[in-house]
Amino acid sequence: MIDLIPEVATKRLVLGVTGGVAAYKAAELVRLLVKNGIEVQVVMTEAARHFVGPATFQALSGKPVLTDLWDGGSTNGMTHIDLTRNADAVLIAPASADFLAKLAHGAADDLLSTLCLARSCPLLVAPAMNREMWGNPATQRNILQLKRDGVAIFGPDSGPQACGETGMGRMVEPQTLVENIDSFWYPKRLQGKRVLITAGPTFEAIDAVRGITNLSSGKMGYAVARAAIEAGASVTLISGPTCLTPPSAAKTLAVTSAQQMLEAVNGVIADADIFISVAAVADYYVLNPSEQKIKKDAHIFTLELAPNPDIVANVMNLPDPPFCVGFAAESENLYEFAEAKRKRKNLPLLAANLVQDAIGSDQSELILFDDEGAHPLQRAPKIELARQLIEHIAKLYHKERGQN
């Protein structure tokens, strides 16, 4: 049996909401956090109440919203201290320019700024302000000081702003913040490592509108990318055509065909410590695709196919290949075919499943094959399987290199 990643217990988060139009995003953030099983206690500044009412956050979090330093929920009158003693982190989202200045200089004149100063847990901030305010030297000095103090900074993003201007200063989107928080809490078993991942199907053109592809959704590959980011890795994701949104922290390269995927892999593989080939690459391509749409007629239509390059084999044949992980999707004889594939390609690790149990689904089962045998992973959401896979990869990678 493999050593599974330690289960992350229910997390408790204090969410501080400061004054700014991005406060409306904090409502969606609370909804997503609660949906992910995180307990959220909202604390608002007086300015924040001018943008979103406390009743909204109370309804979404299921907890009374705290706003006043002198009217807290503690019987001992020490709300600003008690709030963080049982919290796993404090997140300020949105964090206004004024509040960032307070944090940088240790000011404490309301409940939120006081609990940040008295906290005994990590502090995370998601800045949100006008582009000129963000670019102001004073704000940049404050951000630099917060980083030196060990505060995690999420964002900001660039784009259209409520004032009508465009530039850096938008609060990162709630879903991205949830991913950042998940990543913050997970063990950093691959900290500093560079991981290259392929995901999704490939599409081999027949003519201008038709092609050969497969039913891969890309969900497993994208989940593996997210899990690798959570483990502290720097991730490059090479993706075939999917409808998925890649993790914001990944460098994503979009490709269509198997040849394009191979070229993309070859272009970055020299920088990779670990290569995880999750993509369902088409085995064949059309030798002479038509540039124009082929018109339908009553005759039998014949395609001439040629085998696509084997991307994993190409990587394994490099003079100094990275640690390589393969994937196999089989419709029968899973154990026999998967282990044979692993040995044929000389892979240290191969993850396999049955196509009928996995393609398109949000859940799956995996069996990990390595030199010690087969290690079944029970059916679970793909992100949970991806986390277990990344933990196993980290164990084998560090063992191979004589590291703890």
How do the strands and helices of this protein lay out in sequence?
Layout: E1 12-17, H1 23-35, E2 39-44, H2 54-61, H3 79-85, E3 89-95, H4 97-105, H5 111-117, E4 123-127, H6 131-135, H7 137-148, E5 152-153, E6 157-160, E7 166-170, H8 174-185, E8 194-199, E9 204-205, E10 211-212, H9 219-230, E11 234-239, E12 251-254, H10 258-268, E13 274-277, E14 284-286, E15 305-307, H11 311-316, E16 323-330, H12 334-345, E17 349-354, H13 355-358, E18 363-370, E19 373-381, H14 382-400
Parallel strand pairs: 1-2, 1-3, 3-4, 4-5, 8-11, 8-13, 11-12, 13-16, 16-17
Antiparallel strand pairs: 6-7, 9-10, 14-15, 17-18, 18-19
Helix pairs in contact: 1-2, 1-8, 3-5, 4-7, 8-9, 9-14
Structural class: alpha/beta
What is the helix content? 25-40%
Number of domains: 2
The quaternary organization reads as single chain
